[in-house]
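User: C-alpha cells in, sequence out, please.
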C-alpha cells in the first residue's frame, strides 16, 4: 500500500521530481509506504515531514488508485489524502529520493507524472475541499 499526499496551497499542489527509485525522473506527490499497523493519516504526516519538513494541518481522504508498474514488477494500491500544510517552504530532506519540490496548478502539471498520479488524473479526480 502506498499513500500519496495532495498538499494544496494558494491553489497549487506540491510535487517532487523522483530519483533513485522506481519512477525515477517522474513528478510525484509526497508520500510513501504505509507501514504495518499505521493509520493512513499518520503515514501522510510522517512521509510529508520526512520528505519536505512540512507539518500537515487539515486532512481528508481523497481517492485511491490501482497501480501496476510492469517494468519494475510492482503492484500498489495508493491511498490519496487531501491536505493543507503549515507555514514554510518544502525542503529536499531525502536527496537520494527527490531532486526538488515545486508547486503546480492541478491543470498545469509537469511531465512525466508518476504512475499513481497519472491514474488518479485519468479517474477524473480534481482536489476540492468540502
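Assistant: Sequence out:
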Amino acid at each position: 500500500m502506498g499513500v500519496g499526499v495532495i498538499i494544496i496551497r494558494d491553489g497549487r499542489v506540491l510535487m517532487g521530481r523522483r530519483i533513485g527509485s522506481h519512477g525515477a525522473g517522474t513528478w510525484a506527490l509526497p508520500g510513501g509506504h504505509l507501514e504495518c499497523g499505521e493509520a493512513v493519516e499518520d503515514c501522510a504526516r510522517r512521509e510529508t515531514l520526512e520528505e519536505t519538513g512540512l507539518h500537515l494541518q487539515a486532512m481528508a481522504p481523497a481517492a485511491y488508485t490501482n497501480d501496476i508498474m510492469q517494468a519494475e514488477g510492482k503492484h500498489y494500491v495508493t491511498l490519496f489524502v487531501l491536505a493543507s500544510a503549515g507555514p514554510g517552504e518544502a525542503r529536499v530532506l531525502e536527496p537520494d529520493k527527490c531532486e526538488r519540490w515545486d508547486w503546480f496548478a492541478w491543470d498545469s502539471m509537469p511531465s512525466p507524472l508518476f504512475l499513481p498520479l497519472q491514474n488518479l488524473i485519468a479517474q477524473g479526480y480534481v482536489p476540492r475541499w468540502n
